[in-house]
Design goal:
The structure is a homodimer. The two termini of chain A are 26 Å apart. In chain A, a hairpin with a 5-residue loop joins strand 7 and strand 8. Chain A is built from 13 helices and 14 strands. In chain A, strands 6-5-1-9-10-11-12-13-14 form a 9-stranded mixed β-sheet, with helices on both faces. In chain A, strands 3-8-7-2-4 form a 5-stranded mixed β-sheet. In chain A, 39% of the residues lie in helices and 21% in strands. At the A-B interface, helix 2, strand 4 and helix 4 of A face helix 2, strand 4 and helix 4 of B.
């Protein structure tokens, strides 16, 4: 397997986010309650809390993760040209992360940090119903600086995709804004994922300003969109977001997604899944499918359908990256 | 999750083997051919070859492994009291290994090495038919010495189980013999797994002497048993092994297993599996189930059936340790 992406060749999507290795283990709702963890959410934790929590969880499975990184892998799996920008440390987990994302065909050139915190990891507790609760020790991922965002890389990609989780670190926030400006300066599009309801609440005003001025394609789930606009109903939030973005794709779990944009409002059903094993990565892979369609100029419905197929594959197994080539699963939609 | 095993309380099974973290990735038979890898076998590789091979394989999943360690986890999952002896390094993968085996309820006290090679890993290439081909960089696992084998721990366990792979290292071989003698001195039983046909061929005379003089319970598959005795037929090999061991349990993949011992010859069918995803750990978990029955004094047929149920669970998913509590799956057999 070789690194297929080449910044010089032109890219479909470059994603910017936290470079993390996921540590997945199964849990019970009682354990989440006892630990005070909000089911379905993402909490930032420090090294001491990470060690404490890890010590109390069951046997784990380590797989490369990170929201925006998962999206880049999904883009490549669908046959798109993807790149990722994010920071690991020069340690074993950093090598694992770099190996896995390159082996998936994603261009990845961010230099590993040579000192400071170790490669970041996300302790993901999967409940019996497949819902995941995430506890992130950012580690080296928080070292991402504006200098890591190469204007050449961003300028070479049709879309630069940013994960909202980056807003939890001041330096990463600067890198985030730098990337958005570089993309627009090159006449490219900027996409944003709101990532998490709690993340939206922590940074609501920042996100609002960004959505109003800098974001062309917005990804969110229904809760995150309502949290952003503080509206009582989903329809109210949709009415506001269409004023600000060229297109917004809003997922609603088993109810599928709603896309608003140049073609009005399109409702897209979820793709069938035999058994939901682990919802980690559902939103990341939806965004991957959607963006592959978007960069090819497909109708919004087909973009949403590509997102639905990609999300359905990733929730049918443990881990947030596709196990089967998505290009084969979505072949009928990619023609 | 806490370490449930306590050497002072009496143990059912202590296993001794290579402490490894598995790196699982999917492959094609063409890739195995191009790399000169014998499908279904285990090859020992050095650090340089490990890095080279890893660089050519697809995205991986890291899960704790090691043949005898998997068996100890299977024993605990079935409600038995299990312990493991094996060496990791004081690095990230070593922490992962120690966390996972303790979280599975296995007593594990071997001190990590503080210098020398990193924690060992096994690159496992899984073919589309579920067969696995293993490439092991032993690392710190090869540092296991006779001093690591506590006579108290071995003396506290009804059975001491040794994996044949240990014979690939002179120091580990000495630890192996030390463990067998300590067990017998305490009036306990010694079990051995032949591990791999190539491993048997590398150490045939050593294994023969051990089986004749020191092994009470032998685990092998049909190929390994024929390789040990250099017999043309499986029946010839069975005729020889009954002269040497109290009991031999020989697996034959989808054809189930044959157990020979005090009750004569018993044929045990394989347990049903919907889809074979990854055969890694099948033999390890068969041994776990068998030994739980054996230490409870069950009839050989029921011991074999417990092995079959445990093996069926582990081959139905990626990874060599059970994902579901085996005690629940095998409840009817454990009464």
């Amino acid at each position: 397997m070789t690194d297929r992406g080449n910044a010089g060749d032109g890219l479909d999507v470059v994603t910017v986010g936290n470079a993390l290795v996921d540590v997945l283990s199964t849990t019970t709702d009682d354990f989440l309650d006892a630990q005070g963890l909000a089911k379905g959410g993402m909490a930032l934790i420090d090294a001491a809390r990470a060690a404490d929590l890890y010590g109390q969880t069951g046997p784990g499975t380590e797989v490369s993760g990170g929201s925006a990184a998962n999206t880049a892998v999904g883009v490549a799996s669908l046959g798109g040209r993807g790149a990722f920008i994010g920071r690991v440390r020069d340690d074993t987990l950093g090598e694992v992360f770099a190996h896995d994302i390159r082996a998936a065909g994603v261009h990845f050139e961010t230099a590993p940090a040579t000192r400071g915190a170790p490669t970041g990891r996300c302790l993901i507790l999967v409940s019996p119903d497949g819902e995941r609760t995430m506890n992130t020790f950012l580690g080296a991922a928080a070292e991402l600086h504006a200098d890591d965002v190469s204007p050449n890389l961003v300028g070479a990609a049709a879309v630069t995709y940013l994960e909202g989780y980056l807003f939890d670190q001041p330096d990463a926030k600067a890198a985030f804004r730098h990337a958005a400006h570089a993309a627009h300066s090159a006449g490219r599009r900027v996409a944003l994922s709101l990532s998490d309801t709690f993340c939206v609440e922590r940074h609501r005003l920042d996100f609002l300003a960004l959505v109003e001025h800098d974001v062309d394609v917005l990804f969110a789930n229904d809760s995150e969109l309502c949290a952003l606009y503080e509206t009582p109903t989903f329809d109210d939030a949709l009415g506001l977001v269409v004023r600000h973005c060229e297109v917004a794709a809003v997922t609603r779990a088993a109810a599928g997604s709603v896309v608003v944009g140049r073609e009005g409002l399109v409702e897209v059903p979820a793709a069938p899944v035999t058994q939901v094993v682990d919802t980690t990565g559902a939103g990341d892979l939806y965004a991957a499918g959607f963006l592959v369609g978007y960069t090819r100029g497909y109708a919004l419905r087909r973009c949403g359908e590509l997102g639905a197929v990609a999300a359905a594959e990733v929730i049918s197994h443990l881990g947030a990256r596709p196990e089967r080539p998505l290009g084969e699963l979505a072949a009928a939609l990619l023609q």
